[in-house]
Protein: Valacyclovir hydrolase
Organism: Glossina fuscipes
Amino acid sequence: MFRAINKNISSSFKTIVSAIKRYKHIEHKVKVNEFDINIVESGKGDKSVLLMPGAVGSNWTDFKPQIEQLPQLLPNYTVIAWDPPGYGKSIPPKRNFDLDFFQNDARQAVQLMKALNRPKFSILGWSDGGVTALIIAGRYPENVDKLVIWGANAYVSDEDVNILKGVRDVKNWSARMREPLEKLYGAERFAELWNEWVDSILNIYEKCEGDLCMKEVREIKAKTFILHGKKDPMLAKEHVPYLKQHLRGFKYHEFPDGKHNIHLRYAEEYNKLVANFLLEKS
């Protein structure tokens, strides 16, 4: 009898250890061209999903609940969250805010996934990361399986400009939103970086007629899931209808009381919705 009990205990222990190993995250850097890109990998599945953070964000500041929870909901996936060049721990280099910085991020992301031997992948893109995700899906359709976006826009509108001017001074942010980024960069550098980003978006508005990825949106073939916080204060109301009009096929879910960070505020619900979408047969 004791042998049977010991055998059961040993079997249970091995199962627990196996599960811990499966879902434990690994953080490391990957050489992509001249950049050392910092990534977090979680899960051991053959399929891949890339998490793309918002403006000046990083893998941990923007996606902690997804890194920790999605592998359990997606056992056949490996979850990969990156710090774009010049953000988070992918420094150096100093962040480049040229007019085509979104396109540069898109190219680097695709090359990163190729370097990981995962050339076909799905994407979760939030805010700026959603813009980059739209560019990837439009320009590199052969590399994208499924696309999930929220808080993203294809262009900069007059209303967006007013929104940006209203949030330029980070001293007016809530401590909950400001402090993780101050911890990441230091308070002074975070304020500088944010102002550099605001200036870059205003430059695109003035010099490129606000076009971020309007052409790419029309080229997207991947099955797409748009999630939206109806009370998002960072996104002009016209952007979701625009995406609905110009994407060929999409699924839509709205959080009635959601704001910009629905994946953090409603992490459990968000993760289940996304997992179900990725597990659906195409």
DSSP finds eleven helices and eight strands in the chain. Residues 2-23 form the longest helix (22 residues).
